């Protein structure tokens, strides 16, 4: 039952992101540039990951297994802490790189923040996937 | 740390999924335990040992 709720929450989040993305795509008046296509790609990747983990949780629950066991919790925690550490360096390098350009408008500032947030999400997803393949060697 | 989970599971004719169901984890956790790529919590080690009716130190061997 808990696993079903867990999967439903994941599917709801994925539907919410897709809904917001659809709203943005159909309501924007500006033509799409490379950044917009990149954003759509990253969002689809995130939604794909959420749906995949929701399906896995349902499969586990169907087989009578606990989808949120101690190893998966540890993997999520370790991925989050590693992603946070790497993100600090990413922002630091980004700030140095930004020194070369002038941020003279709100849109440019939004662009930088959006890239940073997507970068952080991607770093977390890749580390999470990597750790779930190789496990945690916590000796 | 090494474990005797694989050997004991084979002896008791248990599959990885069956053992995972008994101790409330995912199959992947059993896979990582058998490969020695994950050190379980004391509770999980206790639960696994209980399935095989053995002491923790008989299932999980510290090197």
From TrEMBL, chain A:
Protein name: DUF2178 domain-containing protein
Pfam families: DUF2178
Keyword terms, alphabetized: Membrane, Transmembrane, Transmembrane helix
Organism: Tenacibaculum adriaticum
InterPro entries, A to Z: DUF2178_TM (IPR019235)
Source domain of life: Bacteria
Residues annotated as transmembrane: 7-26, 38-58, 79-98, 110-131
TrEMBL record, chain B:
Signal peptide positions (record): none
A molecular function (GO) term: DNA binding
Keyword DNA-binding: yes
Entries under SMART domains matching the protein: HTH_XRE
Classification via CDD domains: HTH_XRE (cd00093)
Domain HTH cro/C1-type: 5-59
Keywords: DNA-binding
Domain of life: Bacteria
Pfam families the UniProt entry points to: HTH_3
PANTHER family given in the database record: TRACRIPTIONAL REGULATORY PROTEIN-RELATED-RELATED, TRANSCRIPTIONAL REGULATOR
Name of the featured protein: Putative transcriptional regulator
Species of provenance: Tenacibaculum adriaticum
């Amino acid at each position: 039952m808990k696993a079903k709720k867990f999967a439903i929450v994941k599917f709801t989040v994925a539907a919410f992101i897709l809904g917001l993305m659809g709203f943005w795509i159909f309501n924007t008046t500006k033509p799409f540039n490379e950044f917009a296509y990149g954003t759509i790609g990253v969002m689809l990747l995130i939604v794909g990951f959420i749906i995949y983990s929701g399906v896995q949780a349902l499969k586990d629950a169907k087989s009578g297994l606990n989808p949120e066991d101690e190893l998966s919790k540890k993997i999520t925690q370790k991925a989050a802490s590693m992603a946070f550490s790497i993100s600090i360096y990413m922002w630091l390098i980004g700030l140095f790189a930004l020194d070369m350009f002038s941020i003279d408008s709100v849109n440019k500032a939004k662009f930088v923040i959006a890239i940073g947030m997507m970068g952080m999400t991607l770093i977390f997803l890749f580390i999470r996937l990597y750790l779930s393949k190789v496990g945690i060697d916590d000796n | 740390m090494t474990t005797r989970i694989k050997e004991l599971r084979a002896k008791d004719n248990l599959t990885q999924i069956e053992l995972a169901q008994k101790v409330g984890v995912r199959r992947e956790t059993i896979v990582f335990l058998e490969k020695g790529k994950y050190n379980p919590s004391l509770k999980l080690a206790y639960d696994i040992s209980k399935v095989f009716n053995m002491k923790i130190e008989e299932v999980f061997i510290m090197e």
